[in-house]
Design brief:
The protein is of the alpha+beta class and about 700 residues long. It is built from 15 helices and 32 strands. Among the domains are: about 110 residues, no CATH class; about 250 residues, Rossmann fold. The strands form 7 sheets. Strands 25-26-28-27-29-30-31-32 form an 8-stranded mixed β-sheet, with helices on both faces. The protein is globular.
């Protein structure tokens, strides 16, 4: 293992944002595996600015999983192959005293999402590696979809992994995503439950013969090529040879998608969430459909509905005694694509009853005291029979809370007296053995607050360059977040560090409509996209100029998704910005409704379908105002974006050309709603910087 790239805290922390919810970690828990790998780190150089090619030099660890007896842990190493420029993932183990870390398999083949069996003897993982020669392979899916993985198992004290299924596996593609996919051992460790499609071609023989496809219901963004997600249970062999399972049973076989399977305490049932109505829509980045909680009997395959609310009820978690399930819910059907979710509680008895354990939609709820719960609860959220632990958004920050599901009392857990504190104690052993000089000149992230002039206090994050690179007043990149029902948080990501290393400050406002500020604030921009939220942003810019933090003549704007909408909207409303970059942007609300995988987005935002609200959709579309744009505008768009489809980028580009605006459209092939391939990420950053540093002017 020679010439390992350096480990950098920011890139390691960022990698965890894409992990499964049950392995999503705090910065400090990730710190453990930074050091486990520390013996391979190079000696730090003199501090220097960040460089785009650092994307290819950095590596990180995520998915930290600790054995039940706490004697060892496993993590996934993430890096980019120097030759292919493609992401790599492999499994590492840390054990012994003192702790030593090493790759589990020679050559470090692909490995993701490790899971340790209850007895600590086996590690199950997902992998894109090919199955043995001559065996049935995992069916492919488009590059821009979820990776087509299969399940493998490796002994905790071994070095060779074996596939779960034998030569002729009964299932197709395993779901590796955060919404449906979950791999879980039964309480006795003898079975595995997972979500997979059947791998069959959905086309009829006549379609195949004519090489055509009839449009069928799917789950949209990120799921192309995947069929409905069914529930499967594998019975593991006592003595595993060339594969791990003696028998694999399919529990569901219909047109619906099932997700997040959870074992009952006795191992006789599986709880899942699923939308089994005729009205379905993608849940990628969105939980606003009629999902309900169901349980499935392992022996009979009978499925039973446990909840019947009008809105989403999702992510079930069994209580320690198995008598109840906690879950997230909202009363709003086809509401905002990320809502403020309450905790529901349903019994598992013959005639189940449900109630709210805490109603976050109540008018007297103070978000500062209880947060806005994250949409992905911990897999082991139950602390005891009366309490669950959850993470909540509070403004720009996140806090951990303890909810008494009996009394409804919520307190900040502070990590005290919870299983999470014990986990952190173990992970605290993975500390650096020594300090080294900083390798790069890191940006600073801080909270700022301002009055928007309408009686509202708004806050946001301001990222400023290291003092050795630039001093105020800074050039400013306004970077509105997506959603709009999402939020900015404190911290500096890779892109932020690159911008700051070129002397830019980056402003991330949490305008009205953002999560983390309560229900009233979340709903405050409904029917008014581009109105009050734009004024919140511009008043924040004015605040920074007045304070002398930024140069009012050096303003730029860059946003993705709804941030791209806001970018495209801003340049049609003001000429304050020297240059703009809109990535995967919503530019026309009619096209967004007709072409996107999420019609509820526009319906919720404006209260109706296009023929019911044509004037509102037209007036609030950036395309309508394109003739007023003067700002040089670069348009970046993924070729295969299902959420904000490419025609919106093409249309805005064409309109700007006709308006005489200096513009350019760059299309990234084999990318979905996020531009994620390393080469494309690097190219995108170079183009943004060149566009800004040239003021968007022609050569």
């Amino acid at each position: 293992m020679k010439d390992k790239p350096r480990i950098f805290l920011s890139s390691i922390f960022l990698s965890c944002n894409n992990m499964f919810p049950e392995t999503r970690l705090s910065f400090y828990s990730v710190l453990g595996f930074i050091v486990l790998f520390g013996q391979h780190s190079a000696v730090a150089d003199e501090p220097r600015p960040w460089d785009i090619d650092d994307l290819y030099r950095d590596e990180s660890f995520g998915s930290v999983t600790v054995a039940p007896d706490k004697t060892f842990g496993v993590a996934v190493r993430h890096w980019i192959d120097a030759e292919t420029k493609l992401p790599r993932h492999s499994l590492w183990i840390s054990s012994g005293d003192p702790l030593q870390s090493r790759p589990m398999e020679a050559g470090e083949p692909d490995a993701r999402a490790p899971l340790i069996s209850p007895d600590g003897k086996w590690i199950a993982l997902l992998s894109t590696r090919p199955r043995p020669g001559g065996w049935e392979q995992t069916p492919p899916a488009p590059v821009y979809s979820e990776p087509t993985v299969d399940i493998w198992l490796i002994p905790a004290d071994g070095e060779t992994a074996v596939p779960l299924a034998g030569p002729e596996k009964p299932y197709g593609r395993v779901y590796p995503d955060q919404n449906y996919g979950r791999l879980a051992f039964s309480p006795n460790g003898r079975k595995l439950v997972f979500i997979a499609d059947d791998g069959d071609d959905p086309r009829s023989p006549s379609e195949i013969a004519a090489n055509v496809s009839v449009v069928r219901e799917d789950q949209g963004e990120g799921y192309e090529g995947f069929g409905p997600g069914d529930v499967w249970v594998a019975e593991l062999a006592e003595n595993q040879d060339d594969h791990a399972a003696d028998r694999i049973v399919r529990l569901t076989d219909d047109e619906f998608w099932y997700g997040q399977p959870q074992w009952s305490l006795d191992g006789q049932k599986i709880a899942v969430h699923a939308n089994r109505t005729a009205e379905r829509e993608s849940i990628r980045y969105s939980f606003n459909q009629n999902l309900d909680i169901w349980d499935i009997d392992i022996a009979t395959h009978a499925i039973r509905q446990l909840t019947t609310g009008p809105g989403p009820e999702f992510f079930p978690r069994y209580s320690p005694d198995g008598s109840r399930l906690i879950y997230l819910t909202s009363p709003r059907h086809r509401g905002p694509h990320f809502d403020i979710y309450s905790f529901g509680l349903v019994t598992t008895e013959r005639n189940p009853t449900s109630r709210l354990a805490f109603d976050f939609h109540a008018t007297d709820v103070d978000y500062r005291a209880v947060g806005n719960p994250s949409s992905r609860p911990h897999a082991d959220c139950w602390e005891d029979e009366s309490h669950i632990v959850y993470d909540g958004y509070v403004g720009l920050s996140s806090k951990r809370f303890l909810l008494n599901v009996v009394s409804g009392e919520i307190t900040e857990s502070g990590l005290a007296n919870t299983k999470f504190s014990r986990r952190r104690e173990l992970q605290s052993r993975f500390r650096p053995r020594g300090k080294s000089a900083p390798a790069r000149l890191n940006a600073k992230s801080q909270r700022i607050e301002w009055d928007n002039g309408e009686g509202m206090k708004i806050d946001g994050a301001l990222i400023t360059p290291h003092s050795a690179i630039a001093k105020p007043p800074y050039k400013l990149i306004v970077n509105p977040h997506g959603g709009p029902h999402w939020r900015a948080s404190l911290g500096a990501g890779f892109d932020d560090q690159i911008f700051a290393s070129r002397g830019y400050a980056v402003f991330k406002p949490n305008f009205r409509g953002s999560l983390g500020y309560g229900l009233r604030f979340l709903d405050a921009n409904r029917g008014d996209l581009g109105g009050g939220d734009m004024r919140d942003i511009l008043s924040g810019v004015d605040h920074l100029i007045k304070k002398g933090v930024v140069d009012g003549d050096q303003l730029f704007v860059y946003g993705v998704s709804y941030g791209g909408y806001m970018t495209s909207w801003l340049v049609g409303q003001t000429d304050r910005f020297k240059a703009a970059v809109a990535e995967n942007a919503v530019t026309d609300l009619m096209m967004m409704w007709t072409l996107s995988d999420l019609q509820s987005w526009t319906e919720w935002s404006f209260g109706g379908q296009p023929w019911e609200i044509p004037d509102a959709m037209r007036q609030h579309s950036p395309l309508t105002h394109a003739h007023k744009v003067k700002t040089p505008t670069l348009i970046l768009h993924s070729a295969n974006d299902r959420r904000c489809p490419l025609p919106m980028g093409r249309a805005f580009h064409q309109a700007l050309l006709r308006a005489g605006v200096h513009t350019q459209l760059v299309i990234y092939p084999n990318e979905r709603h996020s531009i994620a391939q390393p080469r494309h990420r690097a190219d995108k950053l170079r183009r943004i910087l060149d566009w800004f540093e040239g003021g968007g002017q022609k050569d």
